């Protein structure tokens, strides 16, 4: 029967699309597969596609609207051919964890993101630029909102990097805020998910991409460039957490290799207290 063959081909295509989707997760779940039928779709085919996890769009109609069935037996044959074994359906994943990279921690503790924190001049063109951005669009409120009622984690590499950086770069108030925040957050062991581990040898994920953004983050402090940023993202991916970060370069580079990372992108804010000067005039 021609309709049986067409239905079988449609099912095979659907399974191929679902397999492809499962290899390109978005927020730890495969993207939706939608099949739209501009004409009517047999109801039994629509039900089968739906059971596989495909969203079906189109007007459903009974099989008799498509062909004249010579007997009940042939109808049964059609059902037998189309009713293949059910696959295991993936349960929806609820993301209730936020993973912090170094840049996201700085957004929370930098004096620049405090009230009136931009009412200074700074001994750095980068800080002046960030202060101007902060006046237009404060970076902290969005991150605070994203943290509400979430489990907060930081991998050990990121935690150690923050600790080392604040020893010399942070001002007194920034150090206090860092201590308060780091006491609240859960430290987890460094992990690499398989997706991120595969990126380590990718052409697009270069050493500069992995660690170069720290040069801007720390201005002249570059001795922490060896922090392995892929471990921070890999830990977020491993623990099924959304990673708060300002590192758009790594996110974009991963995307170019077909890996969609679950991230909260924040604006970069360096620690500013040691470099701020009182305004003489505005």
TrEMBL record:
Protein name per Swiss-Prot or TrEMBL: DUF1308 domain-containing protein
One Pfam family, short name: DUF1308
Stretches assigned to the DUF1308 domain: 98-213, 229-277
Record-linked PANTHER family: UNCHARACTERIZED DUF1308, UPF0415 PROTEIN C7ORF25
